[in-house]
């Protein structure tokens, strides 16, 4: 007996479950779907709360489940240290990647002095950006299921075109942790073009630029659409540039101009008050010429701050200029024009995406550069999610006349002698794609060959991002130069890389899917999904405990060596305090909980960092003493 599903929200028969499109944004996130009757993409507005879901996660003090979205955003002022925002900026990043940006966040990001995934500390609990992104995706999924009255298990998720492999893999992991089968990771500009309806007519041929400036990321892409085929000619951008940086510029201006008390830089609640006021000013000045508000410090004293549109434009001008520089590079990479040609004649449209494009200066700068008025006719907050829903509809087989081709945003290659990067798949190569190169051994009798995979545009691998490595073993012992090793890269439609190495004389081979060093393995993600139904906390804790113990043992080794070599530069009290904290770490290592280990490590790092800085200064002074500068 056959069963027929009926969608209670639409009143229609439903042969297959709905596939949703999700825009997982830095500031806001959305979920959309294509209505089975109208065939139009719609952003889901559950219970009248609006289609936009703030990308904010709050952890209640009572230990209950996290609060996500509109309700969580209310805690940015009242409980900032338990309220996480802009987590997308942390996806696939190490603490070293964040640099000075880490200190600008209202919550605690842990520096474990490694290249591992950053951790966010909320009192004595620690979370990864993947787990936090999964919380946001769970909220989007729940809203979709509530509004559509049907299970939602499959999704298309968008990412900035400039996201690297680590960030794409982290996004996929987050989706799967949220219980979603991620059918495709799609570049946001490609989704935006679909939302604007470009390319849905197979007879249409157009070339468009998509300028996407969101809360935390920026990218620009040049797309060519022919016979229903979307081809990304080039892409450029910055994964750490967006509306958040506009806010930061306002904060810095107010701090310098109005002499705000130091507490506005040290007190998390006052920091958030200042940041939110700057965001309010940015939005207000998009429609008005002057902005005034009052900031209240911990003592109840008010400080009036003001900002004019002219001042705001001057503050953000350098940031907008950086986006135009990226536009210029994207046009050059696309080989769209020669020096004697006008850009405006080569582009059929310039599409604006992202809430930050509402800023008048942005609109004017983009329109001026491309030589034509930019198209902002669609809601810039919704356009990416709507395009993702159309892509989901394509994958569901409902639109058979549209094909998407994307490009890889950064060069992929391997390390060769001397620490050089040998490119295998150049930047802006169309995906999916396959490329390879032949190598040999450099030492007589060499039986193993380490293959280290990197991503980036610099000549030295030390200046690029390492994605992973593996060893091809079992090579027949021969004189150097005789073995022939083919190394092949296969980049799939999601931008995930598989690498295969084959020694042709012996047919020895090794094939591995390169997992970004910050992502989770498929097995780990699958186990976490199962644990979400059974005993997630216990299983996740077991894996993270091993990572914490390894990092703690490394820290103990470093601190012990440091104090042994530099005892003459440390006071007795400092040595005593350090030894006591070292014992705290050792004690935590004997336990079976991860968070106490990370807490003890964090406290040891905070304690010893001033010593290390002082000793470094002493070493520099001693090295310079008595030397003449000629």
Automatic annotation (TrEMBL):
Pfam families, per database record: HSP70
Superkingdom: Bacteria
Gene3D superfamilies found in the cross-reference section: 1.20.1270.10, 3.30.420.40, Actin, Chain A, domain 4, Substrate Binding Domain Of DNAk, Chain A, domain 1
Keywords: ATP-binding, Nucleotide-binding
UniProt record similarity statement: Belongs to the heat shock protein 70 family.
NCBIfam families for this protein: PRK05183.1
Name recorded for this polypeptide: Fe-S protein assembly chaperone HscA
Originating gene: hscA
């Amino acid at each position: 007996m056959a069963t027929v599903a009926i969608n209670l929200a639409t009143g229609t028969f439903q042969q297959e479950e709905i596939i949703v499109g999700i825009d997982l944004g830095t500031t806001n996130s959305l979920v959309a779907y294509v209505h089975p009757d109208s065939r139009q993409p719609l952003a889901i507005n559950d219970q009248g709360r609006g289609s936009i879901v703030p990308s904010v996660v709050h952890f209640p003090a009572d230990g209950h489940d996290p609060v996500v979205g509109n309700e969580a955003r209310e805690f940015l002022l009242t409980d900032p240290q338990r309220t996480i925002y802009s987590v997308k900026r942390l996806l696939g990043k190490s603490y070293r990647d964040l640099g000075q940006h880490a200190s600008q966040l209202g919550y605690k990001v842990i520096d474990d002095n490694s290249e591992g995934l950053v951790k966010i500390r909320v009192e004595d609990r620690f979370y990864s950006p993947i787990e936090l992104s999964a919380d946001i995706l769970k909220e989007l999924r729940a809203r979709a299921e509530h509004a559509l009255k049907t299970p939602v298990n499959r999704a298309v998720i968008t990412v900035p075109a400039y996201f690297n492999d680590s960030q794409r893999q982290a996004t996929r992991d987050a989706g799967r942790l949220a219980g979603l089968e991620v059918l495709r990771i799609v570049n946001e500009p490609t989704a935006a073009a679909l939302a604007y309806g470009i390319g849905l007519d197979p007879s249409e041929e157009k070339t468009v630029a998509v300028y996407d400036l969101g809360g935390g990321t920026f990218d620009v892409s040049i797309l060519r659409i022919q016979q229903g085929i979307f081809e990304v000619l080039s892409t450029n951008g910055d994964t750490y540039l967006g509306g958040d940086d506009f806010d930061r510029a306002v904060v810095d201006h107010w701090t310098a101009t109005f002499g705000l008390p130091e507490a506005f830089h040290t007190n998390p609640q006052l920091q958030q008050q200042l940041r939110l006021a700057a965001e309010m000013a940015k939005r207000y000045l998009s429609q008005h010429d002057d902005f005034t508000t009052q900031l209240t410090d911990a003592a109840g004293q008010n400080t009036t701050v003001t900002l004019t549109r002219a001042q705001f434009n001057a503050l953000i001008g350098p940031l907008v200029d950086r986006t135009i520089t990226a536009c210029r590079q994207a046009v050059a990479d696309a080989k769209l024009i020669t020096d004697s040609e006008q850009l405006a004649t080569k582009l059929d449209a310039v599409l604006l995406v992202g809430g930050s494009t509402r800023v008048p200066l942005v609109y004017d700068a983009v329109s001026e550069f491309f030589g034509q008025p930019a198209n902002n006719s669609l809601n810039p907050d919704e356009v990416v999610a709507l395009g993702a829903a159309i892509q989901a509809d394509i994958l569901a087989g409902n639109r058979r006349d549209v094909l998407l081709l994307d490009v890889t945003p950064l060069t992929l290659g391997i390390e060769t002698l001397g620490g050089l990067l040998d490119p295998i798949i150049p930047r802006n190569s169309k995906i999916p794609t396959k490329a390879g190169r032949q190598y040999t051994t450099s030492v007589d009798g060499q039986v193993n060959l380490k293959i280290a995979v990197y991503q980036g545009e610099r000549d030295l691998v030390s200046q690029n991002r390492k994605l992973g490595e593996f060893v091809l073993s079992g090579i027949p012992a021969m004189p150097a130069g005789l073995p022939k090793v083919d190394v092949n890269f296969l980049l799939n439609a999601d931008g995930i890389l598989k690498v295969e190495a084959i020694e042709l004389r012996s047919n020895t081979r090794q094939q591995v899917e390169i997992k970004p060093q910050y992502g989770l393995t498929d097995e780990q993600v699958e186990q976490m999904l199962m644990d979400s139904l059974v005993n997630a906390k216990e299983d996740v804790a077991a894996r993270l405990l091993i990572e914490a113990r390894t990092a703690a043992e490394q820290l103990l080794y470093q601190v012990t060596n440091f104090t042994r070599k530099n005892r003459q530069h440390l006071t007795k009290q400092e040595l005593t305090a350090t030894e006591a904290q070292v014992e705290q770490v050792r004690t935590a290592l004997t336990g079976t909980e991860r968070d106490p280990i990370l807490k003890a490590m964090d406290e040891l790092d905070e304690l010893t960092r001033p010593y290390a800085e002082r000793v470094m200064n002493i070493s520099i002074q001693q090295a310079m003493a008595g030397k003449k500068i000629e």
